[in-house]
Task: structure prediction
Amino acid sequence: MPRSHGRRAALVHPDAGAIDVLDVLHALADPTRMTIVRTLRADPERACGTFPVDVAPSTLTHHFRVLREAGVIRQREDGNRRWTTLRLEELDARFPRLLDTIVSAYDRQADSANT
Amino acid sequence: MPRSHGRRAALVHPDAGAIDVLDVLHALADPTRMTIVRTLRADPERACGTFPVDVAPSTLTHHFRVLREAGVIRQREDGNRRWTTLRLEELDARFPRLLDTIVSAYDRQADSANT
DNA sequence: CTCCTTGTTCGATGTTCGTCGTACAACGAA
DNA sequence: TTCGTTGTACGACGAACATCGAACAAGGAG
Result:
């Protein structure tokens, strides 16, 4: 028994009512994580490995954890895969229009840069 | 001449069109800076020392610099004082409803905590 | 069972961040 | 000019962060 990894850690998600807006802002203030969120807005559910980001797998795991613990995404185990969705409705119930306004602002910025 | 400080550095503000939404999110993802912004929403202009935050003066200067360089606030020299305002209109022109939505979300969270 | 795929955990590295104390610069008033 | 007020610049410190590689765990296909 060379390591004491134990089994796969259970996925922890904060309750909708416990989501902290500062945590959400911090989670979104990173280009890789913003790309993840934008991708999920277009596609409702994706597996981890299918996001158009260019970082090492372990780095991607880290970013998913930040988003998950901030309450932005939900992850579901399915065999070997881990499926990811936005917690859009819960987020919207607590902070109306927050996610949409932020992502729209980023979209607008990306558009103005491609000119 | 013990130091080579030179004179007071000029205040640098990014052009409205160069404001980066990720910088704005990062600037707002801190409780002290969020308090500064909320205070400025209530009062249009304040001097640095009049904010209800509990940090050392040099720390406050640091937070003002982060907000200023992100394009969230504007600072104006006036004799010994430095007056601070929100760049609300410029921000709103580039990212409609962004600041208002974020600050409202924080207000809502603060309200729900005081229950 | 064996191999491949998927994604994680751990440990390390270098960077950025929030905080402070100290020194100091500019201004205004006495 | 001297003194008090206001706020900055610098340097340091510990914590948090983004990133990676290596090892590994679980599941599916053959």
